[in-house]
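This part of the workshop introduces the protein records we will be handling. An example says more than a description, so a record of this kind follows.
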Amino acid sequence: MDPNQAAAKLRELNDVATADQLEAGAEPVRGISFGLHPRWPIQDRAWQHTGHAFGYVPPDATANRLVRIQHAGLVKADASLNSARVKITLDRLRVAEYPGGGTHLILFDFYAQNQTHASVEHVHFTTTFRARQGEQASVLGYPIFVGLRVGDEGVALKCFTVNVKNEDDTSLLGFLDSDLFRAGLRLASTVQPALATLSGMAVGLTKSLAARRQNVAVQDFFLGLDFSSVATRGRLAEGSYIVLQVPETMVSIWDWRDWGYNPWTGHLVRRASPNELPPYNYLILGVSRLAEST
């Protein structure tokens, strides 16, 4: 956005201080410039960036030590997951900084391709979570896709988040708190015609809310996981995938060896300083094989 447009949006979100700084053209109060709009005096907010770093935590992360994190492209692909059915869960969601302040209502749109015996289903699942600025949402093992069938080319996952501040929209989204939606999207091994309609409604709802007054999109990423040996791709295996929103200039130099997963607290921490958390928004997606009887 143009700084003046962004200032107006930030005022809608009750972030008056940042809006004033944008309109005044003040120098950044912290951090460095990451090459955003040249007129932006503020270029160090965690929610400003489109870059993401993708990490992986192995499933046996139970030892009494920080667990090593590696880039998703270094994972050894598990070929036995080809044609298997898997469960995708949201295991962590940390809001380091979203536009505005206080408690955020975050709308998620998750997308995946379900490889049935007959064709490919494009499925969306929409849900909401609440989290305060600088804290984690109260979520652990939240089911997103249950019974997603993996194809020969692996899986394709997308996620789009919207910070919802409009009070009318907050009330509208109350139906997503029902037990029906909290159970995740259960997929069958055969085509389900109703899914196309439901997925279309979910996409329409998310796009509509993202464009409305007081609401703003924050994260938007695509994660493709396959069985190839191409170094620049992500590989599919059981475990946890970390999606960290970082400045584009950090993507190329972000080194997961500097960070670890603390199994006692469920946080990502700097290995050299275990009490230090990354100053960026992130979420963790869990991938596990579904029992054949499910």
About this structure: Residues 26-38, 188-197 have pLDDT under 50 and may be disordered. The first strand starts at residue 52 and ends at 57. Residues 1-44 form one domain. Helices lie at 3-12, 16-24, 167-172, 179-182, 193-210, 248-251.
